[in-house]
Specification:
alpha/beta, Rossmann fold, 8-stranded mixed beta sheet, 7-stranded mixed beta sheet, 15 strands, 17% strand, globular
Length: 362
């Protein structure tokens, strides 16, 4: 199979779909890989490393897209829509529930699109979302701590406090992978941490991890209202696969937060759980609304591409190889991979997306 690896064009997105190590294995399996020049530079991989691995280096995006399968990191942007075509397979993060325009572009093109974030194992785990969720959860606290600094527009609060001065209050909405990793870093930095989740079994599991170091609260509107008002840093970590998360923090609650508090919503690429939060970029990561600093970068792991690209490839590559070897036949032999199918033959295939866009599913 011919496999294309275009350079990512999302703002300061330095990850790349395939590492040189992944390319080498594909070539050893008699596949051809075409990598756009400079695609891996941001992750620390030179064109020369890709050549040594057996890839062919192509000069522009069109040449990287013009192949049977395209492997990316982030969703196609409008400038790339013209490259989408029938009988082509796209394997990348898509997050279509929050992007009607992209959904329509994929449907109109006739492309087959498999989304990393909806590949689902029988036990409900999302193996291709997990590595980036781990990174995003850890970065959420790192970025939150930075934007709490006065020079960055925050309250001037040190996350861990000092003897005689209380630490910051960190509220994590959602106790999944993102929330767990955020809490892990926040606790390590000495903050006072609360996790709110609706799943009692998950809260019980989190108690085995954190013991009394984290307050574990059952999620309801009263609990969220009380915790939000006292939060210096609020981290949104709510995930509903292929769906928009509910709005847990309306504007009225944001208005009650202390001026200079910080909100980081990791689920912004799916629509987010905070009413006042909208997508931002690494170039302009924050804005202030209702006196609160909002951070809504949807590709947070792009800030650490050397780590993130390798972590992502560790998880995605077995599926890439299976698709390269078997084509779409891999969907019939791998139920988890079949769950990743979002668009095929001009049709919306994923049941959750059909509910999000019922008019497009008709």
């Amino acid at each position: 199979m011919e496999i294309g690896v275009p350079k990512e064009i999302k703002d300061q997105e330095f990850r790349v779909g395939l590492s040189p190590v992944s390319v080498r294995v594909l070539v050893e399996n008699n596949h051809q890989v075409f990598v756009q020049t400079g695609a891996g530079v941001g992750s620390g991989f030179s064109d020369g490393e890709y050549k040594q691995a057996g890839a062919q280096i192509v000069e522009d995006a069109r040449a990287a897209w013009d192949h049977e399968m395209v492997v990316k990191v982030k969703e196609p942007l409008p400038a790339e829509y013209e490259f989408l075509k029938p009988n082509q397979l796209l394997f990348t993060y898509l997050h279509l529930a929050a992007d009607r325009r992209l959904t329509e572009a994929l449907l109109t093109s006739g492309i087959t699109a498999i989304a990393y974030e909806t590949v689902e194992l029988p036990d409900g785990r999302l193996p291709l979302l997990m590595p980036m969720s781990v990174i995003a959860g850890r970065l959420a606290v790192q970025f939150g701590a930075r934007f709490l600094e006065r020079q960055e527009g925050g309250r001037g609060v040190l996350l861990g406090g000092v003897p005689g001065v209380r630490p910051a209050n960190v509220l994590v909405l959602g106790g999944g992978v993102v929330g767990t990793e955020a809490a892990r870093i926040a606790v390590g930095m000495g903050a006072h941490v609360q996790i709110v989740d609706i799943n009692v079994d998950r809260l019980t599991y989190l108690e085995t991890l954190f013991g009394s170091r984290v307050d574990l609260l059952y999620s309801n509107s009263a609990q969220i209202e009380a915790a939000t008002a006292d939060a210096d840093l609020l981290i949104g970590a709510v995930l509903l696969p292929a769906r928009r998360p509910p709005t847990l923090v309306p504007r009225s609650l944001v208005r009650r937060m202390r001026p200079g508090s910080v909100i980081v919503d990791v689920a912004v690429d799916q629509g987010g759980c905070v009413e006042t939060l909208r997508p931002t970029s690494h170039t302009e990561p924050t804005y202030v609304e209702e006196g609160v600093v909002h951070y809504g970068v949807p590709n947070m792991p792009g800030a650490v591409p050397w780590t993130a690209t390798q972590a992502l490839n560790n998880s995605t590559f077995p599926y890439v190889l299976k698709l390269a070897n078997q084509g779409l036949g891999a969907l019939s032999t791998d139920k988890a991979l079949a769950g990743g199918l979002n668009v095929k033959n001009y049709r919306l295939m994923h049941p959750a997306l059909q509910q999000v866009f019922p008019d497009l599913a008709a």
